[in-house]
Structures are given as structure tokens and as C-alpha cells.
From TrEMBL:
PANTHER family: REGULATOR OF RPOS, TRANSCRIPTIONAL REGULATORY PROTEIN CPXR. It is found in: Cytoplasm. Residues 128-227 bind DNA. The keyword Transcription applies. PROSITE patterns: OMPR_PHOB, RESPONSE_REGULATORY. It comes from the Bacteria. This is Response regulator. GO terms for cellular component: cytosol; protein-DNA complex. The lineage of its organism: Bacteria, Pseudomonadati, Pseudomonadota, Alphaproteobacteria, Hyphomicrobiales. Residues 3-116 form the Response regulatory domain.
Length: 228
């Protein structure tokens, strides 16, 4: 049973979501203070955190920033509908996904299942064999990544994206294909999730000797992982 920590100061919404998720088979703990999420991440006591951005004491963006210094536990952000700034900020800091409020319990449950699947299992249809692409080594079965002989810390979403690119290393992969293979769903118009997560992976890989990124983009088409 996956343990979910739900952080939100909206008591009515929290009760609704908790009751639904419990019926879906989750073990749900709630709190109204983001510091509880930081403690849970530090203690590795939950499988996933649902974190509202607009909270008293400490907002969700600051909480997420502190969590990512301690752990790669999956984090799903609850954002104000239409607030692209908060969404992009959350993704840039390592959030795995977001759901705009007000959200339906069914949508939240579906997003949780997708994130947990990416965090703990290989992508649908993928083998568990080791993937080698130049200096990158991925182990889909354990979700462990190595870069230049050292451990590479990735969120579940980042691993899934990099796995898709590594399986087609040296080839251009369209954003539509990336979305379907990494997330199991088609890309929707104006969805920048892939771009933001790719940007984070690029930073973790660093630059090539020629100063270029290891992940090249072709505007409007897709991305390519270089191997030499």
C-alpha cells in the first residue's frame, strides 16, 4: 500500500481527497504545514507527497526546494488554475507533475498512479535490461542512473524522459513520442512539462567539451541525446 502525504490547508478539499484516495487503496496522512513534508522527505517515511503551493507559514515552492535538497521522493503540486508561473517554478525545482485546483479526486488519483509507476517501475513496454548510451548507464529495473561513472540523482519523471532519449540515443525523438513513451499519454497543446524537465536533466548532465548540451533540441520537433 502506497503512503501518501497530503499537505493542504483547505480542510474541506483535504477531507474529500483523503476519503477518495483511501477508497482507492492508499494510506493517506494529511497536514496543513509544509514542514511536515520536509520531515517526511528527510525520514523517507512516505511514497509520495501532494503539496499545495498556496499555504501559510511556508509556501509550497519553498517547501519543494527544501525537499529536493534532502530527497528525490515524488512530489505532485497543487496549483492555482491558470498560474503558469507557479507550475513552471515547481517543475524547475523538481516537482514530478502538477494538478490545477479545484481538482477532481479521480484526476488526482490518476496522476498519483502515473507518478508512482514512473518512480518505481520501468516505463510501460520497456525491458529491465541495462541501457548504455555513451557515458550514460540506466538501470530501468532499479531506476538507478549513472553518468560518467558516478550516481546521477533523477526524479522519477526525469528518469523516464532520459530513458526514452537513451533508448534512441543519437536520434531525434519527437515531443509527442516522448510524451507517449514516458508518460503514457499524448502531448497536449501548450504543455511545457517536457521542456521544463529536459532543462533540469540538462543541468544535471552538464555541458560537453565543446560547450554544447548533451541533449540537443530541434525547435518544434523534439530532442536528441548525444553520445559522443
Amino acid at each position: 500500500m502506497n503512503k501518501v502525504l497530503l499537505i493542504d490547508d483547505d480542510a474541506e478539499l483535504t477531507t474529500l481527497l483523503q476519503e477518495y484516495l483511501v477508497e482507492e487503496g492508499y494510506d493517506v496522512v494529511t497536514d496543513t504545514d509544509g514542514r511536515a513534508a520536509i520531515a517526511a522527505a528527510a525520514g523517507n517515511t512516505v511514497d509520495i507527497i501532494v503539496l499545495d503551493i498556496m499555504m501559510p507559514r511556508m509556501n509550497g515552492i519553498e517547501v519543494l526546494q527544501r525537499i529536493r535538497k534532502l530527497s528525490q521522493v515524488p512530489v505532485l503540486m497543487l496549483t492555482a488554475r491558470g498560474d503558469d508561473v507557479d507550475r513552471i517554478s515547481g517543475l524547475n525545482l523538481g516537482a514530478d507533475d502538477y494538478v490545477p485546483k479545484p481538482c477532481s479526486p479521480g484526476e488526482l488519483a490518476a496522476r498519483l498512479r502515473a507518478i508512482l509507476r514512473r518512480a518505481g517501475q520501468p516505463a510501460a513496454g520497456a525491458s529491465t535490461d541495462t541501457i548504455r548510451a555513451g557515458q550514460l548507464v540506466l538501470h530501468p529495473g532499479s531506476r538507478i542512473a549513472e553518468w560518467r561513472g558516478e550516481s546521477l540523482e533523477l526524479t522519477g519523471t526525469e528518469f523516464s524522459l532520459l530513458e526514452v532519449l537513451a533508448r534512441s540515443a543519437g536520434q531525434l525523438v519527437s515531443k509527442q513520442d516522448i510524451s507517449k513513451r514516458a508518460f503514457g499519454k499524448p502531448l497536449t497543446p501548450f504543455d511545457r512539462r517536457i521542456d521544463v524537465h529536459i532543462s533540469s536533466v540538462r543541468q544535471k548532465l552538464g555541458l560537453r567539451e565543446d560547450g554544447q548540451s548533451w541533449i540537443q533540441s530541434v525547435r518544434g520537433q523534439g530532442y536528441q541525446l548525444l553520445v559522443d
